[in-house]
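G., the chain you wanted modeled:
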Amino acid sequence: MKMGIVTAILYYLIQSGRLNFERLLLLMDSPGILMMMYLILILAVVPMATLRWWLLLRAIGLKVEPKRTFLLTWIGNFFNTTLPGAITGDVVKGYYVIRSEKEEGRTRAFMTLLIDRFVGLFGLVVMAFIALIFNLDLIWKQSSLHPLAWSITGLFGATLIFYIIALYPFAEGRDPFIRLFNRLPGKTFLIKVYLAFKSYQHRKPTLLFTLLLSISIHMLVGLIFFEVSKLMGIRDMGLATQFFLMPIGLITVAIPVAPGGIGIGHAAFESLYLLAGHSGGADIFNVFVIVQLSVFLLGGIPYFLYSGSYKVPEEETLVKGN
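Predicted structure as C-alpha cells:
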C-alpha cells in the first residue's frame, strides 16, 4: 500500500507538470547556488524543524526518540509538499506518534503538531516585522506596501498578545478565556488547543527557543530566495526587503489548494514582488518549489521503510496477558 501511495504521488506530480526536473537546468550555470539550496534544506532546515518539534514533545513529558522524530519529520515533509495543503504531513505524523502513546497522552501528542505549526507561523510573522523595521524608508516611500506593513504589524501585535495570554498564570478556575470559549461554536476543540498552549506556561524557555528556531529556519529560506532572485536578475533588492516579502508569501502556501503551495504561491509571490517594483516573483518561487520538492521527495524513502512499530506500554501488556 505504501509503495502504491508513493508511486501514485510521483505519477501525479510528473503528469501534471508540477515536478519537472528540467527546470533545475536553470541552475546548472550556477551549481554553487543549487548546492547551497540542497545543503540548507537537508542539513539545516529539516534538522532544525525536527529539534523544534522534539523540544515541544519533551516539554510536556512525551518521550519520543530523536531518531523517530527525525524520520517522522521527513515523512511529514514528503506529504506536505506532495499533497494539497501544508497540514497533510502533520496528519500522517500525528497518526504515527499517537500510536506510541497511551490513551491519555494521545491528545497531547497530536496537539504538539498544531503548536509546532503555530510556532512556525509566529516565526514568519516576527521575521517579517523585524524586516519591516529595517525597511521603514522603503515602505514609507511606496504606498502600495502600506497595507502589507499594517497587516504584518497587526499580526505581530496579535502574536505578542497570544504569547502573553498563553503564558499568564491565571488562578485555577478563573481563566476568562475558558469561559469565553465555552460560549463559542466548536468550544471543545478551541479549549483543547488553548489548554495545549497553556501546558507550556511553565516551559517559557522552550517556547522562546522554538520561536527562535522558527525565525532561524525562515531566515535560511529567505537567504535561498535572495540568492535565486539575484540569479533571476533582481540584483537591487536588499536582503531585508526579501526577508519582508518572503514570509508573507509563505503564509499563503498554507492554503490547501495545491501541493507545496503551487498555483496560489506563484500568484502571491508575483504580486508581492510587483508591489516592491520587481517582476519575476512567480519564477523565483517556481525554482524554490522544484528544489524543495526534489529534496522532500526523499521523505518517501523513510515512509516506505517505516514500520510504525511501537512498544506497547507495560501496563497494557500485563492487562492483555491476564
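The radius of gyration is 21 Å.

Shout if anything looks off.
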